[in-house]
Structure formats: C-alpha cells, structure tokens
Amino acid sequence: MNGEPEVHEEFEARLKAYEGRPAAATGVGRDPVNEPMIRHWCEAMGDTNPAYTGPDALAPPTMLQAWTMAGLSRRPERTAAYDALLGLLDESGHDAVVATDCEQEYLRPLRPGDEITFDSVIESVSGRKTTKLGTGYFVTTRTDIRAGGELAGTHRFRILKYAPARRPKASNAPKERRPRPVVNRDNAGFWEGVARHELLIQRCTGCGTLRFPWLPGCNGCGSLEWDTVEASGEGTVYSYVVMHHPPFPAFTASDHAAAAAGPFAVGLIELAEGVRIISNVVGVPYDKVRVGMPVRLCFRRYDDELVLPVFQEVTR
C-alpha cells in the first residue's frame, strides 16, 4: 500500500475534531420580528396567505433565516475554529467552495414582536467525496434560532470545499452544451409548444385560473382539467439576479452581451397575462437590467435539439 488511505484518515480525523465547535458568535437579531419585513417578504414572493396579515399575523416560516442576517453593512462574526477549519481545507488544496443546500426545521411560529437570538455550530464534516466538480469535503453548519429563549427553528447550511477537477484541454474539444430542461408528463406540452415557438400557459377549465409553471392540478379549485392559452409575449422584469460565479462556458457572449465567462442576468418575468416565468434577459448588458423594464418574448436555438424562450428589452 502507498499509505494514501492512512493519510486521508489522519487528515479527516483532524477535520472531524472541529465538529461541535461554534461556527459563529452567539448573535441577536438586528430587529424583532416585525410586520414591515413580513409584508415586504410576502410582496416579493407573491404570497397572499391571510395568516401573514392582521392583528394575529404570523411570520412566514421560510423567513427563519431573515431574522438572523447581518445586513449589507456588516458580516456575522465567524469563530476562530471555523476559520481554522476552512484554512486547513484551503492549505490542503481544497480551496474552491460551492454552497450545496440548506435545510430548515420549524418548531414554533414567529410573531411580530418576538426577539430573536441564535447560535451556530459546525455540525458535521463529511468524509472525502468525489464529485463532478472535484474531490472534497462537505461542511454543515447548524444555526439554532430562538424567540424569547425558546427554540423556534433550525437552519442547516452545507458547503462543499473541494479541489477542482483537472480537465484536459484539447483544441478540438466540442463546445459545451447548455443544460437540458427536465421534460416529464406534466410539462411535456409546454416544451412541445416551445418547439413551435409558442409560449403556452395552463388554464384551469374549472375556475379559469392561469398557472405557470405547469402543474397537474389547480391550486385554486383542485380541478385536474385544463387547457392552454398562448402568451402574447409582452412582459416586464419583476425581479432579477446576476450570476457572477462560477462561469459556465455554455452561456456565451452572444446570449448576454457580456464576456463568455462574465456575469449575466436571470430575470423573473411577469407576463401580460399575470403569471411569471424565469428566463434569461438577452441583448442587453447585465448591469442595464432593471426591475420594471419592458421586455418581449423571443425564441433562441442553441443547438440542434434545444430551443428556449428568452426575453429582449423593448426599446422605445
């Protein structure tokens, strides 16, 4: 044996020694649970549940992390133990990082006026894992959120610290293809429409409610019967995010009026019909995209198999 497994075991034992140690200093929420933040959250999410308004309002459970966030002007204080763990991984060559997932558990509802405290620990460090990105270790932190000293919920956040996989460079290597959409029996009709350059919206034949994305049943009345209407193609940017990193060679400069490896905008488009769709905003630099910007549907072919609906700025 060349000793490599023992080296891994020794290194992983060092990593495991950090489990259970604090990841961030015990904190206090910058603001109590409050109605303005709840209202802003619901407006952004389009959530009209009456439980989140009125004198007996609850905070949406998925806001759990919002009450612990430090804001743009300051960052939560990481402990020396957490910095040492990340430093150990960096020094061993696992210096790339990607967030993989989070989990939340809700133990009691939060209401306006609740004072929030929280603490975070390094819950686990996985064994050595090999992924498509590279070989590395999953680090999970657990944050316990309390209201009035009572445990209200738990937020787990997981990252992968990895050594990027080396990819052979070849001058004749094929261009990377865009990821394929997942087509199933519930949305096949939508993608058939896209192939014909039609953007189809489901319409419940029971109550007439339009819905997108496609679903097997109506959220309004529960009917399983539906037909479709074709979108006019007119819309506005309801919200957007800018993807900075990591770069994806399959998303080219011609798509986003930016460098191939540079940032690009992903928009939440509100169609004239009232439903929203996530798509790329094309033909305009990412830093020129704005909320409320009028856009119009178009279809782009990316390869022999893939056609996607995208949106262009409407110029006056």
From TrEMBL:
Taking every annotated instance into account, which residue ranges of this chain make up the domain ChsH2 C-terminal OB-fold?
229-300
Q: Where would I find the FAS1-like dehydratase domain in this sequence? A: 28-148
User: Coiled-coil stretches, from where to where?
Assistant: none
Identify the Pfam families for this entry.
FAS1_DH_region, OB_ChsH2_C, zf-ChsH2
Q: Which domain of life is it from?
A: Bacteria
Residue ranges constituting the ChsH2 rubredoxin-like zinc ribbon domain according to the UniProt record? 191-226
According to UniProt, the name of this protein is Bifunctional MaoC family dehydratase N-terminal/OB-fold nucleic acid binding domain-containing protein
Say which species the protein is native to.
Streptomyces coeruleorubidus
